[in-house]
Write a structure and sequence with these properties.
Layout (H helix, E strand, L loop, with lengths): L1 H25 L24 E7 L2 E8 L2 E4 H8 L7 H6 L3 H11 L10 E2 L4 E2 L9 E5 L3 H6 L9 E5 L4 E2 L3 E3 L9 E2 L2 E7 L15 E8 L2 E2 H6 L5 H5 L5 E2 L4 E3 L9 E6 L2 E7 L7 H11 L7 E3 L23 E6 L3 E7 L1
Parallel strand pairs: 6-18, 8-14, 9-20
Antiparallel strand pairs: 1-2, 1-5, 1-15, 2-3, 3-4, 6-7, 10-13, 11-12, 11-18, 12-15, 16-17, 16-19, 19-20
């Protein structure tokens, strides 16, 4: 019996070592701290009828839901109600854990719910809306009047470029301007599409079925790096740290007609851009379908959809007053909320 016990413990120890080694190699956290395995707990799907956000609380980023009772801290509500739910926006998107989240919110807002303590007041600190997308794809020159103001022909297909995760920034965040390498900083308010389901070669007719929701964003740019360096350097003009603020909310796709939304940008309270997404050259279905022909879209991926007229680059050279430290930027899209950030 003792020999059998030693053999069992030895085998168990070996399995534990192998599991730990696998976690170290793959970067997968131990099960106790892993992202929720939503697919194993219920049906997959995207969240519906919700306004989502990322909040900073107790030293971590957490999924929040805006409700008439206040912002619901989903992680805390999950513990109080003993119900499974994603704990971050990324977990929600990448695990397609919408049904669990909808069930939790429905339970939390009921009268006399045990989740009352999980509702927060108005004073919350926002984190980046999405923190680990596989891809950030951007569409350039996608508004008719913007193409006209910069004297460019209407493109025949969507013009694509990219940003990286280092650019992601939050509502009420700051952009530290890289003034040692650039001086011509410009604002570009944009509708942001957030993907909720993997797709390749999706048709325009089905393109909206893979969209989790929409948000307000700003494709912040350094025009001198983008346009005036030798051979043009679109990448470095678009990808300095913090150059992609998004937020404050992710509004689920079922609540929004994204191709007909008022869109604005204000600098220090002065309106600089004011248009409507119905001026887009390629609508949200067309952009999503086109991108998926070349790139497999994954849950959590982000698409910046272009900016309307009113950018500084579109003005006559003598009238261009570039953004500087101390400026305050506010961007808004109808139904999606106002994104604010400061330049330092």
């Amino acid at each position: 019996m003792e020999t059998d016990r030693r053999d069992f413990l030895k085998a168990a120890g070996t399995v534990g070592v192998i599991a730990a080694a696998g976690a170290a190699v793959t970067g997968t956290p131990p099960a106790a701290h892993a992202a929720p395995a939503a697919a194993a707990r219920g049906p997959k799907g995207m969240a519906k009828r919700l306004t989502l956000l990322t909040l900073r609380r107790n030293g971590e980023l957490r999924l929040g839901v805006k409700t008439e009772h206040g912002v619901l801290d989903v992680k805390e509500a999950s513990g109080l109600l003993h119900m499974p739910a994603p704990t971050t926006v990324d977990d929600l998107l990448q695990n397609e854990d919408g049904p669990n989240l909808n069930a939790l919110v429905d339970a939390a807002v009921k009268p006399n719910s045990a989740a009352k303590k999980a509702f927060l007041g108005d004073t919350i600190e926002y984190g980046p809306l999405v923190t680990r997308p596989e891809k950030i794809v951007c569409v350039g020159l996608n508004y008719r009047r913007h193409a006209k103001e910069v004297n460019m022909p209407i493109p025949k297909v969507p013009v694509l470029f990219n940003k990286f995760n280092n650019t992601l920034n939050a509502h009420n965040g700051k952009i530290k301007l890289p003034v040692d390498v650039a001086t011509k900083f410009d604002h570009e308010v944009e509708l942001v599409i957030i993907i909720g389901k993997e797709a390749k070669n999706i048709s325009e007719a089905d393109a909206h079925s893979i969209v989790a929701g929409y948000a307000t964003g700003n494709d912040f740019s350094a025009r001198d790096l983008q346009l005036e360096t030798p051979s043009g350097q679109w990448m470095i003009g678009k990808t300095p740290d913090q150059f992609a603020p998004i937020g404050p909310h992710l509004v689920t796709a079922d609540q929004v007609d994204a191709d007909n939304l008022k869109i604005e940008c204000r600098i220090n309270g002065e309106t600089r851009q004011s248009s409507n997404t119905n001026d887009m050259i390629f609508n949200t279905r067309q952009m999503t379908s086109y991108i998926s022909r070349y790139i497999t879209l994954k849950p959590g991926d982000i698409i910046f959809t272009g900016t309307p007229e009113g950018v500084i680059q579109g003005k006559a050279p003598e009238k261009r007053v570039w953004l500087k430290p101390g400026d305050k930027v506010a961007c808004s899209l109808e139904k999606l909320g106002e994104l604010k950030f400061d330049l330092v």
